[in-house]
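Why does residue order matter? Because the sequence determines the fold. Keep that principle in mind as you read this record.
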Amino acid sequence: MLRDDIELVRNLIDNILEEKREKLERDKQREELESERDKREYEIEKIKLAQLEKQLEIENARKNLANTSQATEIGEPGSLNDNLESLIKSVNILTIPVPVRSESFNLFSHSLEKSFQNKSVPNELKAEILLNILGEKVNNLLAYVSQEDLCDYEKIKQLVLKEFEPTPQECLSNFKKAQRLPSETCVQFASRLCASFDYYCQLRKVTDFRPLCDLIVSDRIFETLDRELMTHNAVKQGESFFKPQQLGRECDVYLSSRGRSTKGLIKRNAVSEAKRVVGNKWATSYWLSDKNISKIFVSETKNINCVLSKRASRSLSACSQFRRLSVWDRAEVVERNNICFRCPPPHKLNECRSVKNCFCLKPHHRMIHFPRENSGNPASHLKLDAPAFVPKQSEGTAEANSQSQFVATGIEKGKPKNVILSTIRALVKDKFSQWVEVRCLLDVGSQSCLCTKACAERLQLKM
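Structure:
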């Protein structure tokens, strides 16, 4: 029956082939894992061999130093200088180069301490070796250090670190601006960033999680302050830092003492004075100018000669001769001397940087403003001394309108600065239904009715 069942035979053959295929794949994976394990073991052995070579070099250096010190003790006293020079060379080899950046001096100090420990350098020679390695960088330091302190290594070390130690704010700025160098890998760059941030926390004396959170929040608040307020708080807090609530209190006290408001407090810095881009245009920054801050601007100005009176240090707008001229003559003087129409200084219009316009909102100076023609203004035919117009009264006029009414309207030519509204004399009933004459102001754009206190008292109204 098995021979006759072809489907069953096929299934058996497929299962056997599938098992063989899976077995081959498992063998292949096992071989790959074994090869990877062999490679890892090879790399580990290679690293161990490199460590042994370094330890061997250190042991050889120690033996050479011991032999040199023994030879120095046996030899003449004059060979002490040769021993010092050899110590300086050996310590300089085992120490990292003198850093260029100030934040790396702490790492340089740790490396130097390890070199002194490996070479067994006596304490009386450590200060001299340190000064010799630093070289010209400590010329200013030697000017105010006494002779006794020159032999004290700990004192010299503290002075050097204090001289080249960056401020916490500089350290934070360097951490934010750090970029990976072409010669270092990403792992080295990450290690350098970690060391830089650890050094910043060390300067701020932060060791726990809660102070670290306060430090991050305070630094974020610091970035939102303007330059003046930032400098004030940086000087006041020193090497430590204000907690967020304390920093906010200090800012409020400073702003209130200067008469400033927190509404206009927008960051103006630096890594901080950024512009936001909207589409292809630069978005305007909503800075609020503070009128209470004293601003001092220093600039160099050239002597200006008046084109009419030829007097030095006198602009054309301040010239009395120019002021006595008519508007047409002033415009002719400006055009003849090729002077800017917008501002008095003697420069051309295309060189003008002023944005001020006349009160008519046109780009010219107010002293060269041409008034409108009287013929085109119908208000010019009005006479102020004309008699009052009294309309005829009809027979059916009520008692309230029995008296004559006069409407006065003020019209000013051109574009007025002040709007003069119409007034009218009207009769209004008071509290006891008696007619009282009052003066009303007609404003077609008003959305509410107002009454003065004197009028309300006259009408005996409740207030």
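Confidence is low (pLDDT under 50) at residues 74-78, 266-301, 374-382, 391-408.
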